[in-house]
Amino acid sequence: MFSLENAQSLLNQIAFAARCGVTVEALERGYVRMRMPFGPNGNHIGTMYAGAQFTLAELPGGLIALSSFDMSRFFPIVKAMNIEFKRPASGDLITEVRLAEADIQAIEAQARSAGKADYGWLCELKDESGEVVAQSQNLYQLRRR
Amino acid sequence: MFSLENAQSLLNQIAFAARCGVTVEALERGYVRMRMPFGPNGNHIGTMYAGAQFTLAELPGGLIALSSFDMSRFFPIVKAMNIEFKRPASGDLITEVRLAEADIQAIEAQARSAGKADYGWLCELKDESGEVVAQSQNLYQLRRR
């Protein structure tokens, strides 16, 4: 099983993610919580640049896969993301993603038999007060190696 | 009028964009061409991380605004982006965006009278051979200061 330390170490291998300072705060089978710090990601008008928000919304797709699926047999790719920016972000952002046990099993079963299976969710990015500043509909695919 | 040098200097003020090494190769009223280098943006499986592709697709929205609208009276925000990843990117990516003169005038006229006007386009990200590796539907809004 993928540990929190493994997850952060993997993120640090994606130079783009490492430069943002994004962190994994919690990781379990079917659950991840991540934080994007404001500090290195402000733009010229003092809000968090949209690309940092996209990155925070996208990364859970891989981490949930790593914590939930058998990575020796499958790997994830991102197929599409629809992201909507609802209000300016002026501090750290947090996201939590959950994938139910029944869904984990159904996705892996389909990938095992068909070679691939789509999965995804609605992802909310919240500020420290819990306000949603952006939301995205994420679509990934689990593929058989 | 916003020059190529002004544009690159502005990008360098967005730390997130500067870290990616993205460059503005051409900028005119209603036209921008940008490049995202592969080097600093690879992921753990040797392709360009999705967040770098998003960033290349998003940035033209602001640069086209700067080169086309009166920035002393208006400013742009990004409202939404739907991005679809079509194939792995293993080298630099390039994007070109055009906004027709009639559209520039109509958007600015609406922002002047209504206080805001949406604008956007379909954005293609191409590799050096001209293959489309990702495409996005981008929605921005021009707002009166």
How does this structure look, described?
With 145 residues, chain A is an alpha+beta fold. Chain A contains five helices and six strands; from the N terminus they run ααββααββαββ. The first copy, chain A, has helices at residues 4-11, 15-20, 50-58, 60-68, 101-114, and strands spanning 23-28, 31-36, 74-85, 93-98, 116-126, 132-144. In chain A, the strands form two sheets. Chain A has a three-stranded antiparallel β-sheet. In chain A, β1 and β2 (31-36) form a beta hairpin. The two termini of chain A are 18 Å apart. Chains A and B meet through α2, α3 and β3 of A and α2, α3 and β3 of B.
**Biggest sheet character of chain A:** 3 strands, antiparallel
Strand content of chain A: 35-45%
Order of helices and strands of chain A: HHEEHHEEHEE
Quote the average pLDDT of chain A. 95
| Shape designation of chain A | globular
Number of helices of chain A: 5
- Biggest interchain interface, per-side counts: A-B, 31 and 31 residues
How many extended strands of chain A?
6
Query: Strands of the biggest beta sheet of chain A: in what spatial order?
Result: 1-2-4
Tell me the span between the first and last alpha carbons of chain A. 18 Å
Q: What would you call the structural class of chain A?
A: alpha+beta
Oligomer: homodimer
Radius of gyration of chain A: 15 Å
Write a brief structural summary.
With 145 residues, chain A is of the alpha+beta class. Chain A has five helices and six strands, in the order ααββααββαββ.
